[in-house]
Amino acid sequence: MSEFDLIDKYFFQQVTQRKDVILGIGDDCALLSMPAKAQLAVSTDTLVSGVHFFADVDPRALGHKALAVNISDLAAMGATPAWVSLAITLPELNEAWLSEFAQGFLALAEYYGMQLVGGDTTKGPLSITVTVHGHVPQGKALTRHQAKAGDWIYVSGQPGEASLGLQLLQGLSASGLSANTQQHCINRLQQPTPRVVIGAALRGVASACIDISDGLAQDLGHILAASHCGADIHLEQLPLNADIVNAIAFEQACRLCLAGGDDYELLFTVPEEQRSQIEVIASNTGVPLTCIGRLVAGKPELTLKLDNQHYQLPLAGWDHFSDKK
Amino acid sequence: MSEFDLIDKYFFQQVTQRKDVILGIGDDCALLSMPAKAQLAVSTDTLVSGVHFFADVDPRALGHKALAVNISDLAAMGATPAWVSLAITLPELNEAWLSEFAQGFLALAEYYGMQLVGGDTTKGPLSITVTVHGHVPQGKALTRHQAKAGDWIYVSGQPGEASLGLQLLQGLSASGLSANTQQHCINRLQQPTPRVVIGAALRGVASACIDISDGLAQDLGHILAASHCGADIHLEQLPLNADIVNAIAFEQACRLCLAGGDDYELLFTVPEEQRSQIEVIASNTGVPLTCIGRLVAGKPELTLKLDNQHYQLPLAGWDHFSDKK
Q1: In percent, how much of chain A has pLDDT > 70?
Q2: Potential cystine with B211: which of A267, B72, B151, B268 (Cβ 3.0-4.6 Å)?
């Protein structure tokens, strides 16, 4: 079977055929038509075997995750997913593996009405690079640089679970954790849910937004740097999973939540006058949206507080080439 | 130095700042504005160390090539290059290497007025995935499926040189080749010139177009399959480099030209009534555009001819997962 047959067999036969795809897979380029008065949002992420996932990970879960982490970037801009390109490098032609991978990938694409419009299949060490394209109404994208001191800081879901899931897969003893919670954490790691509906609902409501793939504290740092302000985070307000707090102690649970990484939740800031909208969005989506602190004037620094007192908690985010890790 | 500092230091400081880039590097997504009445052309290609290039290749040449092979796909659609994303996976942080790579990459981006708008830097086995975006006026893209029997087949440049360059790097003895020709072939391999101006000029002139990265014969096969016709190619019309024919014999030079691969020339078909335009384009661009045969009615098969007689010449194109190689 050739490269071309491969692409045909597993990736060409997608159910979703968008009207704005003039040419999909099968020419030198995809040819795409943009809606009027929209801007194009584009993001690229690579997952490398042995770095971002274990070589023996379930290929269907990997297909899901490779797309989900990219859609999460669209969600963080408030963009609506549209098209995706997939570049996949494989050490050998394993059809069973590829079939499972494609099913995980395409199932998520279908869910969001995205069409796979191109890509490349190459031979080499296993890695996956996905480029997603979405639309956002002109001038309505959620960015990082328009937050202001006084805005409230919110986060979706329960960050830290994915990181705990990773530790469990690496052999962490977790005698205090129920089997259900353990599986939930592993699921959060392997099959994250991009917060597309929340991102779209936050257009015109949030003053800034980011997805916290690198860890809540580090990604909040990007908003602080871009918006030139500081932040107070109140540890007792963090949306911790009660089972986890019971099993591994409060301080460790806070550290997971703030620095764990690989969560694809949204962190966003909301001006006082828009706060009532957040309850509506949480209610509509069924996803907890929790206020964890507030932006303050001053240097782009994060201050952790417990009972309104400064609290010291060493944190480090995910950074491949940093000496800090 | 962290991943973020890296991106800043080598890739963020591009001279070209396009007005249609609302947000470039530094947010969850790039945010881009499309021109009116244009369609978006998108292509992705991966280069893997040890497969597409030698691990010790000059990083500046690699930076050039990684972008050039993608721009070539835009050229083949008749699209005008605009934006690019770069996902690069590196085994270690080698700043000297990265600086050279970035210079080669960005110099070509500048040449075409493209802006680097995003990407990802990860740790792992060396590989590079580039996604390019271009614009093409609505309905004017060059595709593969609209060629017709009777159309003439043209190719730009002198295909086969890149493939010979590869063989020279692999230690092919080439006593009959001048040092100049040897270096020229290696340059064609390592620093191909995407045919952007030719592609744009072919809008409204060519009936189909493709870039011949996989080898002339194999890529012509894609046009034949998509357009439901056959082709006659006349070997004596192939634009062979005279030095190469002298050194390695005519039949071998034909095989290099037809099946070599890694050429980023354009193969295109032209209706009889548009043929006069081709001379104008060749004259304006200074690139030879050579008529090598004609499309014929019938099965999507390629017939090779010499002095109007059938000629047998075993060929194989570049296909990573094919048993044929």
Answers
A1: 94
A2: B72
- Which of A74, A118, A324 is opposite residue B43, by nearest beta carbon? A118
Reply yes or no on whether the pLDDT at B7 is more than 70.
no
- Could you list the beta-strand ranges (E) of chain A: 21-23, 30-32, 38-48, 80-90, 115-123, 127-137, 152-156, 208-211, 230-234, 266-270, 289-296, 302-306, 309-310
What's the fold here for domain B3-137? 60s Ribosomal Protein L30; Chain: A; (3.30.1330)
CA A133, chain centre distance (Å): 15
Q: Do B39 and A28 touch (CB under 8 A)?
A: no
Looking at the complex, report in whole angstroms how far the Cα of residue B168 sits from the nearest Cα belonging to chain A: 23
Query: A209 to chain B nearest CA, in Å?
Result: 9
- Radius of gyration of chain A from Cα atoms? 20
Q: What angle do CA A312, A313, A316 make, to 5 degrees?
A: 135
ipTM, 2 decimals? 0.88
The tokens describing B258, both together, are 């037809």
Residue the block writes with tokens 């020229």:
B184
User: What pLDDT, on the 0 to 100 scale, is given for residue B251?
Assistant: 92
Mutate to test the interface with A, among B28, B72, B85 (most CBs of A within 10 A): B28
Residues A276-289, buried b or exposed e (16+ Cβ, 10 A)? eebeebbeeeebeb
Q: Are the C-beta atoms of residues B177 and B247 closer than 8 Å to each other?
A: yes
Assigned CATH class of A152-309? alpha beta
**Average pLDDT value for residue range A42-60:** 92
**DSSP line for B189-205:** HHS----HHHHHHTTTT
A105-114, A258-267, B87-96: the lowest-pLDDT one: B87-96
- The residue ranges of every structural domain in chain A are 3-137, 152-309
